[in-house]
Amino acid sequence: MKHYLNYINGQWVDSEQQLTVMNPSSAMTYATIASATIKDADNAMQAASLCVQGGELSQVRPAIRTTWMLNAAKAIRDIADEGALVLCRENGKSLIDAKDEFLEAARYFEYYGGMADKLEGTSIPLGKNYIDFTQYVPMGVSVQIVPWNFPVSICARSLAPALAAGNAVVIKSPEISPIGMVYLIKALQKAGFPKGAINLLCGKGSTVGSHLVSHKDVNQIVFTGSVPTGQRILKDAAARATPSVMELGGKSAAIALDDADIHKVINSVRAGIFFNAGQVCSAMSRLLIHQSRYQEIKDAVVAMAQSLVIGSGEHQVDLTPVVSKEQQTSVLAMIEQAKKEGANILTGGFAPDLPGYFVAPTVIEVTADMSIAQQEVFGPVLVVMPFEDEQHAVAIANGTEFGLVAGVFGERLNPTLQIAQQLRGGQVFINEWFAGGIETPFGGVGLSGFGREKGQEAIYSYVQTRNIAVRL
User: Fold this and answer.
1) Is 281 among the catalytic positions?
2) At the N or C end, where does the chain have fewer CB atoms within 10 A?
3) pLDDT digits (tens, 9 = 90+) for 318-350
4) Rg of the Cα trace of the chain?
5) Alpha-carbon span 160 to 110, nearest angstrom
């Protein structure tokens, strides 16, 4: 069984403790990885702080950082096939999706590499005898806590703009799915970044993660994960007024209007809730259907869900396992609670008789006040309900504490755009769930968090504005 290490100050480092990584498709042990200690965390923070103080990253000509970023992108592409197999086995996702994560990670480095030498300040007119201008300066040490659902691509999503802007980074990988990130960092070793610029720790969030976010040397926190964990981190951040970017949960709704194209709806449902076994913060977890189309679209959704092939991501399947036994138990418990509240299970709602941590594709008919229509499941579970008119649909869609993404399906331009502008969320899709890309800003409101990742806007989360006023 292979054993993996942490990466601190340019060196791969073992620890006196280790964590076991499981294969969700087989429920068998896959590998072990060094479990970082508080001392390891302090060493990583010291390495990052020294890198910041020495200016090896922040004070070089920005075009040099661009070169490093593009080198990184090529190195990631070179190991994409090897890394994908590891990510597939430790995480449960399909081999194709695992490779796409590495390719997306490479794209982040290309995209933000192109911005590294374009963080330009402004000149402000103050009249005769004054020169005034602004500079964008790095935050310093960025602590980034990465979730288990898309560990490679989400790591790159925040790591790439942080490095492009000149920050040193300490990453805490998810203990449940950390090995793909090891391959990502191995690729970045070849790019030319200075020692201490990138540090990777795998360890318990309750110990190592908590220590990092409350560390005296942290200048920024970037977190993607659950609402309760995010709230705990924000309490630590408040003690030192540490700037933070929070991408938390979602309970996102799609609205199918009376003129919705049923093929677009079904294709988007398939991707929106069954991709990655529904373990996506921006999943389409609620489908609101105009009452005139309700039976038609509901039946088509159920038929599609029942047609999905379930199995290991190493094979050609439609639905892969959830990431762990704990996640499987949590999803099934929420389905059982929905039954107790009177929800109607249209299909699924059980664990198939397969080795591994599978949940059958599930469609549930609910009312808007039921807990499963309000709480994030993070599994292959879609809730459906009818609506009477557009105002009713918007009220239901906006009727949770979350506000990450939303969607509208309809062939008439005016109603779809008008509804899209009323929906509560950082990103709204029209006629295709997950439309957009790394170029488009992503983030939420309410309990879905704050700050934006992706797109040009994101890089400004990794810098501070300095104003310099000169009296001539």
Assistant:
1) yes
2) C
3) 999 999 999 999 999 999 999 999 999 999 999
4) 23
5) 9
Res 35: pLDDT: 98
- pLDDT average, residue stretch 259-273: 98
Single-letter code of the amino acid located at 123? S
- Which pair of tokens denotes residue 441? 């800003």
pLDDT band for 431, please (50, 70, 90 cuts): very high
How far is CA 446 from each of CA 256, 367, 400, rounded to the nearest angstrom?
Answer: 24, 22, 9
pLDDT tens-digit profile of 375-428?
999 999 999 999 999 999 999 999 999 999 999 999 999 999 999 999 999 999
Compute φ and ψ for 463, nearest 5 degrees: -135, 160
Dihedral-angle region of residue 332 (phi above 0 means left; psi in -120 to 50 means alpha; beta otherwise): alpha
Q: How confident is the model at residue 437 (pLDDT cuts 50, 70, 90)?
A: very high
Three-class HEC string of 286-312: EEEEECCCHHHHHHHHHHHHHHCCECC
Q: Which amino acid is at 275?
A: F
Q: Residue 440 — pLDDT band, cuts 50, 70, 90?
A: very high
**Residues 6 or more apart in contact with residue 287 via CB below 8 angstroms:** 253, 254, 256, 265, 269, 297, 301, 382, 383, 384, 385
**Closest to 176 measured CA to CA, from 205, 209, 133, 140:** 205
Sorting pLDDT into bands at 50, 70 and 90, what band is 229?
A: very high
What percentage of residues in the chain have a pLDDT greater than 90?
100
Candidate list 281, 376, 390, 453, residue with the active-site label = 281
CB atoms within 10 A of CB 299: 11
To 5 degrees, how large is the angle CA 263–CA 264–CA 266?
Answer: 65
User: With bands split at pLDDT 50, 70 and 90, how would you rate the model's confidence at 209?
Assistant: very high
Distance between CA 453 and CA 459 in Å, rounded?
8
Sign of CA dihedral 340, 343, 344, 349: negative
